[in-house]
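Subject: for your reference before the review

Hello V.,

The reviewers asked for a structural picture of the protein, and I figured it would be easier to keep everything in one thread rather than splitting it across files. Below is the amino acid sequence we used in the manuscript, unchanged from the supplementary table.
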Amino acid sequence: MSKNSVQQRRGNALKKENRSPAAALSPGDGNEADTVRVGRNATERLLAIHQLISAKRYPNTARLAREFDVSQKTIKRDVEWMRVHWDLPIEYDRERHGYFYSREVKQFPGVPTITEAEMFAMLVAHKAVEQYSGTPFHKPLQMAFRKLTGQLDDKERYTLQDTDEVLSFRPFAPEATDMERFEIVARAIQQRRALRFMYRKPGEKRAEGRHIHPYHLTCNNNRWYLIGYDVDRNDIRTFALARMNDGAVLSETFQKPKDFSVAKYLRGSLTVMSGRGDYEVVIEFDAWATDQLRGRLWHSSQQVTELPGGESRMRMRLSGLEEVERWVLSWGTHATVISPQSLVERVSTIARSLAGCYETP
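And here is what came back from the structure prediction:
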């Protein structure tokens, strides 16, 4: 029987059973949940099979079944699908006990060719999302990256391993986000349902109950925050996820105000904490700090003026002073507050207190 006849019979058999990688690759027990689960992971599995074969690792059904926690029958269907529908030259080596390509395969079917520059940009993004490890976003982003970069053109290109030696992102003190807590909040936002949780303010020992209409999740300086409407306080507040406990999604639904905008809400904050004031903050930096500041956007309203001698003066408009107070103090003697006077007094008080902590008896 000719090779074309064999492939035709295989294709007819698959069509008759209506089995495709995205539909019915489960062992055949008829469980709908299993079918959905496997269907969602089918592309990732086919890509992994292709990568192993291309790397001449000679994978076999037993190994792949263990790796993906599926039956060997499912793996055989995957391989058959790749042979028939994508015309991939998959053969079995009896001496090496695994699959191989009998001719060169330059590109994984269905994956677009991208340039080296685009590939590098994708790898930079992939490295950047590592700082979100511990959140529900991490694994899906990794899976998406693997699918998109399964096989490119045959030009010289960067790989994930190559960039380990070229670039990295090193977030300072990343927060270990509790997965269950994160998913509860994310689900409430998506479903427009109210949240109830216990919340402890910074420095306080006791937590108190909060009834919130959750609007938005944001990450700043490696910490996750929830922005939402506090029903009992009739105000929009910001909550650090790390200080939330005993969260529960309520049956109560809500409609987010049409005029609410995260960008507008945070416009007057230095990072994520908004206030009710309106302050023109002016800070002068010495030459050393000016070199560190130059070329960076610290706030959308900032105006930086270079001064004689290498110093600089920064102006920005803020709605609160708590965050900028801590920011100024982080610069030590390299930053001096000029205005407002209330911020000058706050920083001065803290500076005197700090000096007292280090006085020699």
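For the response letter, the relevant points are probably these. Residues 13-40, 151-158 have pLDDT under 50 and may be disordered. The radius of gyration is 29 Å.

Happy to draft the paragraph if you're swamped.

O.
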